[in-house]
Specification:
Elements (H helix, E strand, L loop, with lengths): L1 H13 L3 H14 L4 H13 L3 H14 L4 H13 L3 H13 L6 H12 L3 H14 L4 H13 L3 H14 L4 H13 L3 H14 L6 H11 L6 H13 L7 H7 L3 H15 L17 E7 L6 H12 L5 E7 L7 H9 L2 E4 L5 H10 L4 E4 L9 H5 L5 E4 L14 E5 L14 E5 L29 E3 L9 H13 L4 E5 L3 H13 L7 E4 L5 H8 L4 E3 L8 H8 L4 E4 L8 H8 L6 E2 L2 H13 L1 H17 L5 H20 L7 E2 L6
Parallel strand pairs: 1-2, 1-4, 2-3, 4-5, 5-6, 6-7, 7-14, 8-9, 8-11, 9-10, 11-12, 12-13
Helix pairs in contact: 1-2, 2-3, 3-4, 4-5, 5-6, 5-7, 6-7, 7-8, 8-9, 9-10, 9-11, 10-11, 11-12, 11-13, 12-13, 17-18, 17-28, 21-26
Length: 660
C-alpha cells in the first residue's frame, strides 16, 4: 500500500501538483515514519516551495536512516546553504562527493559554501574543478569572479565575469560585478559602462545606480550628478536598494536619508538569528572589551586607534582585538597585535562562529569599528554576542538597527535635537569623539620642489578621498584660487581621466588647469605627513568632511578650513578643530568658507598666527591627548557596562571630561 501511495505522490509531484503530492507523501509517512524515499521526496518538495526549514528537518530524518545516501547529503547541503548555514552545509557536500555522487552540482554547492565561509582560495579551486566539467555555467563563472574579487585578484575577476557575461549577456548581476572589479582596478570609464549596461538591463538593479555614481565621482565626471542625487533621494523614500550607506554619506546632506539608507541596507544584509547572549549576567573582575574590525593594518582606523589600545587601563579592562582582515605584515599591524591582551585572527571563521567565540569569551562590550562599510561583517553583531554592542569610528552615522546599543559621538557631530536620526543611544564624549595617536612619526620634510610644488605662492591642499569632491565645493576652490594670485590647489594623485576632468572644470571656471598639482602616492604614512607639512591651508569637503585627513593635516601643522554640514559625517572636521582650540576655522556656509580661505591666503601674518596657535595647541589641547581620550572612552564603557549590569535599557548620556 505504501509503495502505491509513494508512486502516486511521485506522479503528482512530477506533474506539479504539489499540494496533492505533499498530502500523499504525508500519508506514506503516517503509515511508516521511517520511509526514507518519502522523507527525501517530501523534503525536496518543501525545498521547491522554499519552505527550507521544513526541508532541513526532513533531510535530517532521512540521513538518520541512510547516512550513506549521496542524494540526501547533497539535498541537505543545498538546503543549509540557502539557510545561510554554509559551515554546516559544507560537510554534506563533501559527504555527497565522497559517496560518489556524479552530479557536478555538488562541486558547485561545495564551492559556494567555501566562498560564503570566506575560504576563497579553496572556493576558486573548486569552481575550477566544476568548470572543468561544466564550462558553460554562467553561475559558476560569476561566483568564481566574486571569490577572485574577495582575494583582490581583480584582473582575473574581470575575466571571470566576462565569461559569465558571454554565456548570459542579460545578467545585470555580472555586468554590475564586473563594474565593481573595474573600479578596483581604477578603470572607471569601463566601470561606468558596465554599470550603465546593468541598469539598462534592470533599471532598479540593487545598488547599481549608486555604484555608477561612485565610478563617476572617482573619475570626477559630474555630468548628471544633480539628477542622480535627486534620484537617490526619491528611491530611498520608496525603500529601494539604490546606494550603499558609505556612498550615501558622500552625496547626502540629510541625516534622515542617511538613516533610511542604512536601514534599507541592514534589512538586506543583517539577517537576525536567535541571539547568542540571552540576558546572562557576567561577574568579571575586569570589563571585557572586544574591538571588532577588518582594518587592523595600514589603514586610517589602525593608525588612529593604536595609541588608544595601548593606553587602556588593564587594571579595569581586558581587551580583545577580533580581526577578520588581512595581515599586511606592516609595523602598525605588529603594534596593534601587541596592544591587545588578546588578538584573535578570525578570518577563516563564519560570522556565527566569530560571534560564538565572543560569547564563549563572555565579552561584556563589543565595539564595531567598521559599521556598514566595505568588507564589513555586520552578521557578527547580528548574532548578538555581547550584552552591550557599540558603533564607533569606522562609520560616521547610525547602524539604523538593533545591532548597536550605543554610538560614540560628541556634541559637535550629533546635536541634541537630532537623536531621532539614530537607532542607538548616544554616548557623548567631551571634546571630540575622534581617536588620535600622538606618537605618529613625521619624516624629513622635503623641499617644495622635491614635492612638485612651486617655490612660492600659497598652497591650498585637499587630500580627501576623491569621492568627497562635489562640483559645488570644487567651484568654491576655484573661486579661492581666482582670488589668491599665484596660489595652487594640491590634490592626491588621481586617475588620468579624473585629472583631465578636473583641469577642464578649472578652465571652465577661469582658472588655469596647471594650478592644480597632483601629489604622487607615497607608501609610508610618515612620508605623507612630512610632505603635507608643506601646505599652507587644508580646504575641507562637504557634505562629507575630512576625517582622518583632517587629523593628519592638524598633526602636520596645517590649518584646516571647514564648513559645518548637516550630518555626522559633515561635522567631523569641526569637532577636531574645536578640540584643538581653533573654532575660528569652522564656518557655517560656503560663502563664509570661501571668505575665510581667501582671507588666510591673502594675509600672511594672519595665516602665520593661526599656524603658530596650532603648533602650540597641538600638544596642549585635547585633540591629540591620547591618554585623556582613552580615559574618556573608558568612562563611557564603564557607564554602559554599569547600566547593563543593573538590567537597565541603554540611554544616552554625557561623559565627564577626564581632564589633562
Amino acid at each position: 500500500m505504501s509503495e502505491i501511495l509513494l508512486e502516486s505522490a511521485r506522479r503528482a509531484h512530477q506533474l506539479g501538483n504539489l499540494n496533492e503530492a505533499a498530502r500523499l507523501y504525508a500519508d506514506v509517512l503516517r503509515a511508516n515514519g521511517r520511509n526514507f524515499d518519502a522523507l527525501l521526496a517530501l523534503g525536496g518538495l518543501h525545498y521547491e516551495r522554499r519552505a527550507f526549514e521544513d526541508a532541513r528537518r526532513l533531510f535530517v530524518e532521512a540521513l538518520r536512516l541512510n547516512p550513506e545516501s549521496a542524494d540526501a547529503q547533497f539535498a541537505q547541503g543545498m538546503t543549509l546553504l540557502v539557510l545561510n548555514r554554509a559551515g554546516q552545509a559544507l560537510p554534506h557536500f563533501d559527504a555527497a562527493l565522497a559517496a560518489g555522487l556524479e552530479r557536478a552540482e555538488a562541486l558547485l554547492g561545495r564551492a559556494n559554501a567555501l566562498r560564503l565561509l570566506r575560504r576563497y582560495h579553496e572556493a576558486i579551486e573548486t569552481y575550477d574543478s566544476f568548470l572543468g566539467a561544466k564550462p558553460d555555467s554562467g553561475e559558476a563563472w560569476h561566483n568564481r569572479g566574486v571569490a577572485l574579487s574577495e582575494v583582490k585578484r581583480f584582473d582575473e575577476a574581470v575575466q571571470s565575469f566576462s565569461k559569465a557575461i558571454a554565456l548570459a549577456p542579460g545578467s545585470a548581476q555580472s555586468w554590475h560585478n564586473r563594474g565593481l572589479a573595474h573600479s578596483e582596478l581604477k578603470d572607471f570609464p569601463s566601470a561606468i559602462r558596465d554599470h550603465e549596461q546593468a541598469l539598462s538591463l534592470t533599471p532598479e538593479f540593487p545598488y547599481a545606480r549608486g555604484h555608477l555614481i561612485f565610478a563617476k565621482l572617482q573619475a570626477c565626471d559630474w555630468r548628471g550628478l544633480a539628477a542622480d542625487r535627486l534620484l537617490v533621494k526619491e528611491a530611498l523614500t520608496k525603500n529601494r536598494l539604490i546606494i550603499v550607506p558609505f556612498g550615501n554619506l558622500m552625496v547626502s546632506n540629510s541625516p534622515f536619508e542617511q538613516r533610511l539608507c542604512t536601514q534599507i541596507w541592514m534589512g538586506r544584509h543583517a539577517i537576525m538569528p536567535p541571539p547568542l547572549w540571552r540576558g546572562e549576567r557576567y561577574k568579571h573582575e575586569r570589563i571585557r572589551v572586544a574591538y571588532v574590525s577588518g582594518d587592523f593594518r595600514e589603514h586610517p582606523v589602525g593608525f588612529l586607534t593604536a595609541g588608544v589600545f595601548e593606553h587602556h587601563d588593564r587594571a579595569h579592562f581586558e581587551t580583545f582585538g577580533i580581526s577578520f582582515g588581512a595581515d599586511d605584515k606592516s609595523d602598525i599591524r605588529a603594534r596593534l597585535e601587541a596592544a591587545f591582551e588578546h588578538f584573535v585572527d578570525v578570518r577563516p571563521k563564519s560570522d556565527f562562529d566569530v560571534a560564538s567565540l565572543m560569547r564563549e569569551k563572555e565579552i561584556d562590550i563589543a565595539i564595531d569599528l567598521m559599521g556598514p562599510t566595505a568588507d564589513c561583517r555586520s552578521g557578527i553583531f547580528a548574532c548578538r554576542p555581547a550584552p552591550v554592542q557599540v558603533n564607533y569610528l569606522g562609520f560616521p552615522g547610525t547602524m539604523a538597527s538593533s545591532l548597536a546599543d550605543y554610538i560614540i559621538a560628541d556634541r559637535n557631530v550629533i546635536q541634541p535635537d537630532e537623536e531621532q536620526h539614530y537607532s542607538e543611544r548616544i554616548a557623548y564624549l567631551p571634546d571630540t569623539y575622534f581617536a588620535n595617536d600622538n606618537t605618529r612619526a613625521i619624516a624629513r620634510i622635503p623641499s617644495r620642489s622635491e614635492a612638485g610644488l612651486p617655490k612660492s605662492g600659497v598652497v591650498f591642499c585637499v587630500f580627501n578621498n576623491v569621492l568627497k569632491y562635489m562640483p559645488e565645493i570644487f567651484a568654491s576652490w576655484m573661486r579661492v584660487l581666482a582670488a589668491v594670485p599665484s596660489s595652487v590647489l594640491w590634490l592626491p594623485q588621481l586617475t588620468e581621466a579624473a585629472q583631465e576632468n578636473l583641469r577642464r572644470e578649472a578652465q571652465l571656471a577661469g582658472v588655469a588647469g596647471g594650478r592644480i598639482v597632483f601629489a604622487p602616492h607615497v607608501e609610508r604614512q610618515k612620508d605623507h605627513l612630512a610632505r603635507l607639512s608643506l601646505a599652507d591651508v587644508f580646504l575641507d569637503t562637504l557634505p562629507c568632511n575630512a576625517h582622518t585627513n583632517a587629523a593628519d593635516a592638524l598633526w602636520a601643522g596645517v590649518p584646516v578650513v571647514t564648513c559645518t554640514g548637516s550630518t555626522f559625517a559633515g561635522r567631523v572636521a569641526g569637532s577636531q578643530l574645536n578640540a584643538i582650540g581653533l573654532p575660528e576655522l569652522v564656518t557655517n556656509t560656503l560663502s563664509e568658507y570661501e571668505a575665510l580661505a581667501i582671507a588666510l591666503g591673502g594675509d600672511p601674518e594672519r595665516l602665520a598666527a593661526i599656524r603658530d596657535k596650532l603648533a602650540r595647541n597641538r600638544t596642549s589641547q585635547p585633540l591629540f591627548d591620547t591618554a585623556r581620550f582613552t580615559r574618556n572612552l573608558e568612562s563611557a564603557f564603564m557607564q554602559m557596562h554599569a547600566m547593563a549590569s543593573r538590567g537597565e535599557s541603554p540611554r544616552s548620556f554625557d561623559v565627564a571630561d577626564a581632564g589633562p
